[in-house]
Amino acid sequence: MTDRLLAALCVLFCSVAAWSAPVDEARLAALDQEPGSWLVHGRNPAETRESPLAGINTENVNRLGLAWYFEPGTKRGLEATPLMIDGVLYTTGTWSRVYALNARTGELLWTFDPQVPRAWGQKACCDVVNRGVAAWGDRVYVGTIDGRLIALNRETGEPVWETLTIDPERPYTITGAPRVVKGNVIIGNGGSEYGVRGYVSAYDAGTGALSWRFYTVPGNPDEPFENDAMAMAARTWSGDLWWEVGGGGTVWDSMAYDPALDLLYIGVGNGAPWNRHVRSPGGGDNLFLSSIVALRPGTGEYVWHYQTTPGDSWDYTATQHMILADILVGGVIRRVLMQAPKNGFFYVIDRATGELLSAEKYVEATWASHVDLESGRPVETDNADHRTEVKVTRPAPFGGHSWHPMAFSSQTGLVYIPAMENQAEYSTATAFKYLPGGHWNLAQGQTLMVPPMGEALIRGVLKRLMTGHLLAWDPSSQKEVWRVPHSSMWNGGVLVTAGGLVFQGSGDGHLYAYGARTGERLWQAPAGSGVVAPPITYELDGEQYVAVMAGWGGAAPLTFDMPGTAQGQPGRLLVFKLDATETLPPPLPAPALNQPPPRQGTEEMVQAGESLYAEHCGRCHGGALMNSAVVPDLRQLSVEKHAVFRNIVLDGIFQGTGMAGFADVLNADDADAIQAYVLSAANDQWEEAQLPGWWRAAKAWFLDLVAAVMAFFLG
Ligand code: CA
């Protein structure tokens, strides 16, 4: 109490950097007394991402302008939710770097670089991103890509303690924001695509000592179970291959906390390997994959779980954002947990018991017809079985919704979802051999179902089959209320305010404000880069600000080049307020095409290189060499780099930039084949660019027409 009184006085008398109040249970319990702060990841432990601020509202949002911006010096993905505590913004960037800025002026107060070894980037499925810090006491906490949890002094950025949360022999990564509950810093990790065993850990915020660890899948079958929950989970697995690969179930993003029930909710990811028939050949639900699990935050004790996708085989994680709210269900106010996981169903669950209250499709989903309310289980369709034939299934592994946070408005009763429509071809790998280290282990094929047909056609088909929209969803009636289509599939997280506004950034490089009731677009501003992060809002000196990280990258942008997105631009933290007039520098021009070195090798080498590239390179450098500027476009490699191509690919001479060597899975002939493929594609691109402009325009128009027809039949 004294702290908050001091904080209130400090607003009047102190300079920003001179004094700040600790974040503790009492301060979080009284969040409504400081509507201008953003103290925890989802604005509150219920993670609603609803701000009570209404200074910026539907009447005046048209006056919103850029107040200042900060450039952390990257062109890769920025996914962080900044915190705003006592006049200071704390945010994170690529390679787990932390930044503290004066929230009024943008003045940089300190930075912290955990010096992540860049070769660890090979183990990060979805870019070297970070989703933000947690604050507790006088410290902030960051998880690093290489698996460390670090406590920093909030005033100075000096490290206070550091602990390794992972086995460094396995390809774990941390991209998620920690949460702090009752003095425990809770952190999970990622790595299920590669092969790890998922878990969430709690560390004493003061000392960094491990308080507890909860594993999400069973461990070594030759050793005793860690607890009763693992004994229960083990009965839903078969064989022993899952143990070699790891089983998966990583807790890589979402958590929420209900202080009244004293329950911590964790969202659990997909299996490792993906293919359930390889992972657990005798069948079974494979608990706690793709589940929401409720734990006691003080001890890590299991309380209940709800599994969204039993025996998942599609990367249908349940790591997506969870929102706690009290809403009408069947005419009665219920304490619910809401989630729109990748699998396409919107779930409303009783958060005290885990009982499923309702589940309906919020995007097109073909793997299941519906969720049976009696059993709480999805009813799979024929489309779910890709053992003997290739199946085109919706959603794709990108999901109907990925990590991008939703928001819940207590005014409208609606949940605002960054939704996606997409599909993929799923098939079973004929033979599976586990590759340890920085390699994916899926045991199945999954493609974006584009036949090899040239870049223009691929782009034309993908832009029609992979789409994104902002979806306003009524969780009580489980019905869509409105939607706003976006120009690309991958867009930003969402903020809703008491000013009746929904804020969302987009892949096309804008921040938008919509009427929360209508979906009417009321305001927009250029963001310089495609936006994937969620905005926040805060108030200082009676003035409301809106802040968002703008930086194109992450899972889908690494995988393929989405048409109509603002890519290859400097990432920034953008801060807006009413009547501000700052402007962004003009966008960087698209890099000029350089004439590549001549083609090399035989047609057989090019073909071999194409499939090796697809297996080992395309996930970061872009499928079919269609690169979206998050990492280098290999078609633009210089003569000098082509001269040392083997050394780059095999020996890792550029691992200091994030390009690790692949000598554990590739040999010199493989490297030469990949180089022949890269040079072939680079020369195709160059020769195409030399054709007359009118001819290219006419051809593009015609191919787009063909793509429209193809998309119609493929979709
Ligand atoms: Ca995954």
Keywords, separated by commas or semicolons:
715 residues; alpha+beta; Cytochrome Bc1 Complex, Chain D, domain 2; 4-stranded antiparallel sheet; globular; binds calcium ion
Short description:
The protein contains 13 helices and 40 strands.
Spatial order of the strands in the main sheet?
1-34-35-36-37
Distance between the termini: 59 Å
CATH homologous superfamily caption of one domain: Cytochrome c-like domain
Largest sheet: 5 strands, mixed
CATH topology of one domain: Cytochrome Bc1 Complex, Chain D, domain 2
Q: Which percent band covers the strand fraction? A: 25-35%
Commentary on this structure:
By secondary structure, this protein is of the alpha+beta class. It has a domain at 603-714: Cytochrome Bc1 Complex, Chain D, domain 2. The protein has 13 helices and 40 strands. The protein is globular and about 70 Å long. The protein starts with a helix and ends with a helix. Calcium ion binds next to loops.
Detail the topology: elements first, then pairings.
Blueprint: H1 2-13, H2 25-29, E1 50-51, E2 64-70, E3 83-85, E4 88-92, E5 98-102, E6 108-112, E7 134-136, E8 139-143, E9 148-153, E10 159-164, E11 179-181, E12 184-187, E13 199-204, E14 210-215, H3 228-234, H4 241-245, E15 247-248, E16 255-258, E17 263-267, E18 271-272, H5 276-279, E19 291-295, E20 302-307, E21 322-329, E22 332-339, E23 345-350, E24 356-361, E25 368-372, E26 377-380, E27 391-393, E28 407-408, E29 415-421, E30 424-428, E31 444-447, H6 455-465, E32 467-474, E33 479-485, E34 494-497, E35 501-505, E36 510-515, E37 521-526, E38 536-540, E39 543-550, H7 555-559, E40 572-578, H8 603-616, H9 618-621, H10 639-643, H11 645-651, H12 668-689, H13 693-714
Parallel strand pairs: 1-34
Antiparallel strand pairs: 2-40, 3-4, 4-5, 5-6, 7-8, 8-9, 9-10, 11-12, 12-13, 13-14, 15-18, 16-17, 17-19, 19-20, 21-22, 22-23, 23-24, 25-26, 27-30, 28-29, 29-32, 30-31, 32-33, 34-35, 35-36, 36-37, 38-39, 39-40
Helix pairs in contact: 6-13, 8-12, 11-12
The protein binds calcium ion (CA).
